[in-house]
Each structure stands twice: as structure tokens, then as C-alpha cells.
Amino acid sequence: MQNINNTFFTKDIYDNEIRLDVNADVLGRIHNDGVTTSDKLPIDFVFITDTEDKANSLKAALSSLYTDYQNVEVSETKDFWEINGITSAIGMTIDEINKWNEEMWDIGYKYDCQLDGWQVGVRN
Q: pLDDT tens, 48-62?
């Protein structure tokens, strides 16, 4: 972890609010739509933060570290700056989703950007 004083994604949030338990619910809904644990699908994700500089720094890091991620973009909303993108295909098991979630949680913290959500676009 970089030694920074996060003002948006604070250490307290980092330590206490990852909520990996939510992934089981999301994954359950995905499985109800016909996706199996042997499937691998790209994940649409969104991070949020409070400044354009932080958003652009995370975008650059994600683009450098995860060269197979697509459409990593920064946009301004009413309340936040968002960083959206699409991962490479990830296995639709709770272990793989949680591992990815923890990795994104950690990298987001380094840039003071909080992972705010993820979803899978089920393709028929």
C-alpha cells in the first residue's frame, strides 16, 4: 500500500466496508440468469472518488496493470468522479470474484478511489 492520507476512501472504510458477503448475492442472481460456475465473463466495474486527478491516476494505473481491461474511462457525475471499465473474462465462482474484488479494493485504496460496484452483462 502506498503511504498516503486518503481523504475520500479512508483507512476506516478500507478496513471495514469491503462487504465481500454482497458478492454471493450478486453471483446468485447471475447464476439464476443461467450463468454457471464454469463460465468466464467480463465484469463491468465502477470506482468513485472526489477529484478528477485521482480518477485519472487510477485510470492510468488500471490501464497499465491490466492491459486486457477495456473501455476504462473517467466521467464526472453530480456527486463524484467515476472510473468505469470492463475486465477480461473472470470465472463466475465466489472465490474468483472475491479475489478480483479484493485486488480492486486494494488498488483503489492506493489511488483514493473506492470500488463502488460491479455487474456482469449476461450475453445470450
A: 999 999 999 999 999
